[in-house]
């Protein structure tokens, strides 16, 4: 318009009067000051504090740079080399991961610990050589954070352990924290914590000595599966599918109590990712109960059990499966067919009926 903001404010004063200046013009002036302040402001000086380390500042006394535009530094091989991952690419240890771990050892508040753990997780994924040079003591240090009173610290610690689990030599050490992770999942009702904990468990082979604890947390896993948080549901069903292949845990899963609307998980309106995992779970349960080892025993189930919801006389699973055969997603269609075949095979070999109700054929010859 060719006018400066003060000129524009002057015209506003003339046209609108004192009231207009106090409202509309006053607001514009405040906005003008805010914009100027934003243009003039500079990032704070970086210090040796844990917060600055977690933000990946270049060094004490230097300005922290925006995360999306890290400062390049001169490289003998040519090109910018500001990121630690770039330094590692040229065979140099940035020392960044070690600085973060050392910082975590000192007493920090919850916010600082959470930020440091988040940065450690990123470094483990990006700096493979530095992560591989860490020790069992470093894993114990991160595992110690699972006892923190703040849930955000627990979640970040779980994510960090998940990152370290990608390095083979740390898996046995991380397994030592399995019982603690199961305890957190079953006692803290926090969806993000559930996702982080279950992702960690799904990345590890679970040793036999944790099976008693797994039996105790089975109701909690089933509750998470029936919650309305998709990410947690998918992780829970993946773990349950894995456990369903363990002979000594299959009955505990099948006899676990579920809600009366459990079969809603098989509705075609559910996200395809969740539907696929639920169908895989159903197939493994069907195959497990069809095995000679399982059929050798006459099992007793409670009336609200998962077994009765899926395989009982009043189950409507067959209707849900037939509807999924025409699901828009091909992998869901295929998996639904696999479950149907598995159920029919179980009838052909004569699976022993449950003690609650007699079994029946899910699909007659016409279907």
UniProtKB/TrEMBL annotation:
It comes from the Eukaryota. Pfam families: Arm_2. It comes from Ursus maritimus. One of its GO terms (cellular component) is nucleus. Residues 63-89 are annotated as: Disordered. This is Armadillo repeat-containing protein 12. Residues 95-306 form the Armadillo repeat-containing domain. InterPro entries: ARM-like (IPR011989), ARM-rpt_dom (IPR006911), ARM-type_fold (IPR016024), Armc12 (IPR042834).
